[in-house]
Amino acid sequence: MRLTDREKKRLLILALIMFGSLALLAGAIWFIQIGQGHDYLLSQDRQSIRRVRLPTVRGRIFDRNGICLAGNQPDYGICIYLEELLRSGKKRPTARKAWDMVQELARITGVEPQTTLRRINDHIYMRKPLPMPVWLHLDHKAMARFAEISMHFPAADIALYPKRIYPCGALAGHIIGYVGTGKAGEDTERDYHYYLPDMEGKRGLEKVYNKWLAGSAGGSLIRIDVAGFKHDEESIREPVPGGDLRLSLDLRLQRLAEEALAGECGAAVIVNPENGDVLAMASAPGFDPGMFYPHLAVHTWQALVEDKRKPLFNRAISGSYAPGSIFKPLIAIAALIQGKATADTVLKCDGSLALGGRVFSCHGGVAHGDLDIARALEVSCNVFFYKLGLQCGYDAIYHMALAAGFGEKTGLDLDGESAGLLPSKSWKRQTKGELWRDGDTCNIAIGQGDLLVTPLQMAMFAAAIANGGRLYRPRLVIGRKRHDQSEFEPVPPILERDLRWSADHLAVVREGMRRVVCEPSGTGHLAGLPQVAMAGKTGTAEFGRKGSGRQRGWMILFAPFARPQYAVAMVMDAASGSGGADVGPRLGKMMAEIFADERRSAE
After folding, report:
1. What is the SS3 string spanning 340-354?
2. What are phi and psi of 306, to 5 degrees?
3. 23 three-state secondary structure
4. Euclidean distance between CA atoms 578 and 557, whole angstroms
5. Span 266-290, pLDDT tens digits
């Protein structure tokens, strides 16, 4: 059969259309496979790859002798892999299957389920590619039961989690602080689809050094299937463990300091005068940091917050107190340096001083007669220091106190430190709308008025007197070690300033402070020890409504007198008598045990 010209023409057109279509199809395939292939591959990965943040192991905290104060221990649990239980249809059959398995495991292990069907549904909705923890904090008995039958439950497995522990309990709780479960930051939410939370420092050194202790989180890439469950693990980046800290604390001294405050509200600080190391820092009452992790019960938190003794309050650095007579050594140093007094200067105490229509009295109205500086410190004569303060002038006192670190934070590497209050003339004018008066100077001269200090500031001041006038920044961390290091890298001490106190002037004040403890008439003689010469100063500071009779008890001290190893400050929130009567015996007993331990160690 012969085709007509018209038919031939139609066949040609049809052939052209077919070839054109094939060429267009080939071009489209090329464009998809080659031209846009990379973009489609990335798009596929975006839809099927999930980034999971993996927590790391937190670093440990040791005292200066290597005793662990904060560490980790394994916490065993059981998790289930939901992709192993995947059922066709919607999510509900899978959740029901998982819940049935949890109930069966509970029956066998004898441990009540720690999850619910609703939580399983939530996990499938929110985090289904990840294993779901269904039991935490299991004991060895439950773990042994599970190990015996685990081969019958391939979708369940043992899970290991790090648990923060504080082996010494409440000891040094205010310093160590505590951790809680961390929250996701902006980076976490942006960089990861799922994250397993780290511990996060909430208070104390755990908070201040959180970045060092926490280490670096790891991550893994997992591929999910069309249902959203885990299909495979593409890659993993191992977490980097956190670094360790070595503290200046001596646990033996810390225990003695806390025992010295037993049953009272107050604080005690012991520092090394030669470098500013904080050897002990106690605040009473305290708390056990272990009760905060993994979470604190609501009723326990309410009990802590409502406790009028404020166990969470670190009095050693956050408490601002009127210092009372323990401030008198600074007045003496200021007067000596300014040339307003010498070691031989004698002032008379008649029991009181009349000034501007007011009467400023000695404690109990006692008339001490003629005194020099050393004697005035020994018996803590108020009238002597009223007169010495007026002779010196408040500007000299203010600048001396400022140089000695009062009115500003010491720079201790701990959160919550108070600067106290060193009032200036301009401060009074701006705050109270009044001019500075001689009566204000008299009050400051005996550590009263608006002056407020912290126990740590007073300990560092005692250390400066003990070491010849060098003011160190107190430090708690003396060494840091990364996870891949075998030895701690030392953290050097920091000398804030050399106060350039004359040795002769300082000798006058030190002799007066020695008499306070070593002479029978000294106000701090109840702290004295027969075998060790010590120097100190007692203080009793009124607070609250004038005439209420409420007072703080204070004492600062350094020892041994000839070559000081310890500088101490102790305060009791409520003293029944005086600093010498209430704090002195406690401080004396503490120092006696410290030196007894040293002798036993030396033998």
Report:
1. CCCCCCCEEECCEEE
2. -85, -10
3. helix
4. 16
5. 999 999 999 999 999 999 999 999 9
The residue type of 298 is V
Q: How many CA atoms lie within 13 A of 77 on its CB side?
A: 19
Which of 170, 504, 120 lies closest to 311, judged by CA?
Answer: 170
**The two structure tokens encoding residue 426:** 């301009």
Question: Tens of pLDDT along 344-364?
Answer: 999 999 999 999 889 999 987
The DSSP bridge pattern shows strands 194-195 and 49-54 to be parallel
Alpha-helical runs (H) found in 113-244: 117-127, 140-149, 173-176, 186-191, 204-208, 210-214
pTM metric for this prediction: 0.84
Q: Which residues of 296-323 are buried (b: 16+ CB within 10 A; e: fewer)?
A: eeeeeeeeeeeeeebbbbbbbbbbebbb
3-class state of residue 303 by DSSP: helix
HEC string for 73-118: EEEEEEEECHHHHCCCCCHHHHHHHHHHHHHHHHHHHCCCCCCCHH
What pLDDT score was predicted for residue 49? 64
CB atoms < 10 A from the CB of 536, how many? Answer: 37
What is the dihedral angle through the alpha carbons of 432, 437, 441, 443, rounded to the nearest 10 degrees?
-60
Residues 6+ apart with CB under 8 A from 190: none
Q: How far apart are CA 569 and CA 460, in angstroms?
A: 9
Region of 548 (left: φ > 0; alpha: ψ -120 to 50; beta: rest) is alpha
Element (H, E) at 541: strand 535-542
Token digits of residue 463: 């250390």
**How far is the first Cα of the chain from the last one, in angstroms, to the nearest whole number?**
128
Question: What pLDDT is attached to residue 230?
Answer: 59
> Where residue 387 falls among pLDDT bands split at 50, 70, 90?
very high
